[in-house]
Design goal:
The chain contains 10 helices and 10 strands. The protein is of the alpha/beta class. The radius of gyration is 18 Å and the shape is globular. This is ABC transporter ATP-binding protein. Keywords: Amino-acid transport, ATP-binding, Nucleotide-binding, Transport.
Length: 244
């Protein structure tokens, strides 16, 4: 479904993403791991078209979208749930969800909106309230619900568990698995490495904008170097990823 080759992202002299290759098959959950500053958010922003790729290519469902606008990518089924949710706090819950239907040209978006309310009853109860009154977990559900109203084929999640309680994190990851079982492919950037590897089938590890490890989630979870870098293990990490 998603094929990324040699992707570069630059901000002036800063080389945020360096020649990244990444694949995601239809129906897969793939996670991208890395320390702060590794280039994970820049990667997702480039895939969504929010920043321009300096080099490389992005193909989605067989189409070259390297130079497509963010709106075109949304129309084709790519949707980013950004870090920090980025909901419109001065708008109501309902108005925020309606933003997900902005580019819909079919007549079925009301059904998708109803399904979001059915899935998230807390949002239904607060539909006419300003989004600012929602808890952090409810705001994350609103951001995901807004994405679902666009009827995506691929959802890209940027640090979805950030700032959430442990109980809500468990509910969030169950939701991710449920969405995937419903046919949505998932590209997951996540600080909770253990949960991410439990949920995904494969993973990539970024360091300073480069992919330094790529393997099945099971293999990455059992990698002593990754355990040392992320999971509190005591094995010495090889030089290639000591700074993760």
């Amino acid at each position: 479904m998603l094929e990324v080759r040699g992707l570069d992202v630059r901000y002036g002299r800063t080389h945020a993403v360096r020649s990244v290759d990444l694949d995601l098959a239809e129906g897969e959950i793939v996670t991208v791991l890395g320390a702060n500053g590794a280039g994970k958010t820049s990667l997702l922003r480039a895939l969504q078209g929010a920043v321009r790729a300096a080099d490389g290519s992005i193909r989605f469902a067989g189409e070259d979208l390297t130079h497509a606008s963010p709106a075109d990518r949304v129309r084709r089924g790519m949707m980013l749930v950004p870090e920090g949710r980025q909901i419109f706090v001065s708008m109501t819950v309902h108005e925020n969800l309606m933003m997900g239907a902005y580019l819909r040209s079919d007549g079925d978006w009301m059904r998708d909106l109803k399904e979001v309310y059915d899935r998230f009853p807390n949002l239904a109860e607060r539909r006419d309230m300003k989004a600012s009154v929602l808890s952090g977990g409810e705001q994350q559900m609103l951001a995901i619900g807004r994405a679902l109203v666009s009827r995506p084929r691929l959802i890209m999640l940027d640090e979805p568990s950030l700032g959430l309680s442990p109980l809500f994190v468990n509910n969030l990851f169950e939701l991710i698995r449920e969405l995937n079982r419903g046919g949505i492919s998932i590209l997951l950037v996540e600080q909770n490495t253990a949960m991410a590897l439990e949920t995904a089938s494969r993973g990539y590890v970024l360091e300073l904008g480069r992919v330094v490890l790529a393997d099945t989630a099971e293999a990455l979870a059992g990698d002593p170097a990754l355990a040392a870098a992320y999971l509190g293990g005591h094995a010495a990490a090889p030089a290639a990823i000591q700074t993760l």
